[in-house]
Amino acid sequence: MEKLALQGGAPVRTDPWPRWPTFDRREEEALLTALREGDWGGFPMPSPRARRFAEAFARRHDCAFGQCVANGTVSLEIALQAMGVEPGAEVIVPAYTFEGTAAAVLFAACAPVFVDVEPDTYCLDPSAVEAALTDRTQALLPVHLAMRVADMDRLAEIARRRGLLLLEDCAHAHGARWRGRAVGSLGHAGSFSFQTSKLMTAGEGGIVITNDPGIMDGLYALTNCGRPRPDRVREWTVIGHNYRMTDLQAALLEIQLSRLDEQHARREAHAAILDAGLPEIPGLSILRRDERITTLAIYQYVFKYDPAGFEGLPREVFLAAVNAEGVPAEGQFYEPLYNSPLFHMDARRYPAWARTGCDADCPVAWRAGYEEAVWLPHPLLLGEPRDVEQLLEAIAKVQRRAADLIGFDHPAIQAHAVSRAGRARQAAATGQP
């Protein structure tokens, strides 16, 4: 009789998963060429490879301009500033995303307003956006999350009707398309990250793309210590930062961009196996794929967990069991931002916060963060179909033996019980059970 690995049985998978980042001789040769040519840094800007990569990436994403920067968080910060969002303004941010999205709003001297997400995509809910708008709202900051794209039709319509700026956080969505148009080109600007885990990486780095030459002028000055763009169309007098990308990073990214299509196709083919197999397992369901997403980008494969299909076991027990079977999976990959300790802030340091606070009520984000969302890293989809079939078998095995885990205690379960701490913080702060 099979026995769960968490209880001493043999795990379903013991082989290593595909490595990430992916590289071969092409990245090695590109780095050596840049090394020998001596253009290591980002100054004078744009350095040769950073210019070439920015042009290629922007073109690939249907934009005229691209500004390479040091990382994905500063790309959001300077994009807001270059778009003209004023200090103290409110910026609508999904409650379910990485802390860096909201932190960038604060770094731009604005106030993030946390808004709930849609239950079947975990992306910003346009109806909730409408309810959150005030006369201080100046921008919307949707996040294309994990493997889905925010409803850019409705969000763009809200932005047009209310005279708002629209900045896309595309940190998970390199190469994704909505109605045939690239994400990042659907608003006033789009921000991408090249951090190690992302679909394209140079270890760190980011880029902002836009079709607005005036925004590009601001991006250039803010990135390059306040220096103006030589062919500027809009005057910018600003104390900028040194947010430049190095040529060594750009050398890697040129090769990474060339890999994107093949990797997208491989991930999507293997995600289709999960799409078909996961709903066959009691207690599991998948996120809705909107037919308007014409090219899929899968940064993490996300599905929903319902304890009713697993003898009532909390998500952290399920996760501990699945990990023991050899499948790396996370639950609290993100938590509702208003419940993160990073955003219990002193309004004396962030005056705009005094007008908005962090008293959001976002039940979908709450359930996703603490109860139902399960995240699988994208390298799991870069191998062979057999890998994905083993992944399904590991999860199915846990479901079949779920009754064995009732009342079972194990250090691995405690390690996955972060959600309990999140609940405790909220309960202490609000009295919510």
**Widest sheet, order of strands:** 1-9-8-5-4-2-3
Sheet/helix structural class: alpha/beta
Instruction: Say how many strands there are.
Output: 13
The average pLDDT score comes to 92
Tally of separate domains = 2
Q: Give me the strand/helix succession.
A: HHEHEHEHEHEEEEEHHEEEHHHEHHH
Instruction: Describe the sheet with the most strands.
Output: 7 strands, mixed
- List low-pLDDT spans: 424-433
**CATH-defined topology of the largest domain:** Aspartate Aminotransferase, domain 2
**Strand fraction:** 5-15%
Q: Total helix count?
A: 14
What is Rg? 22 Å
Q: Span from first to last CA?
A: 40 Å
- Report the CATH architecture of the largest domain: 3-Layer(aba) Sandwich
Helix percentage range: 25-40%
CATH superfamily of the largest domain: Type I PLP-dependent aspartate aminotransferase-like (Major domain)
Rough shape?
globular
Query: In CATH, what is the class of the largest domain?
Result: Alpha Beta
Provide a descriptive summary of the structure in words:
- The protein has 433 residues and is α/β, with parallel strands linked by helices.
- The protein folds into two domains: 232 residues, Type I PLP-dependent aspartate aminotransferase-like (Major domain) (Aspartate Aminotransferase, domain 2, 3-Layer(aba) Sandwich); 171 residues, Aspartate Aminotransferase, domain 1.
- The protein contains 14 helices and 13 strands.
- The chain has a seven-stranded mixed beta sheet with strand order 1-9-8-5-4-2-3, sandwiched between helices.
- Strand 4, helix 6 and strand 5 form a beta-alpha-beta unit.
- Helix 3 packs across helix 7.
- It is globular, with a radius of gyration of 22 Å.
- The C terminus is likely disordered.
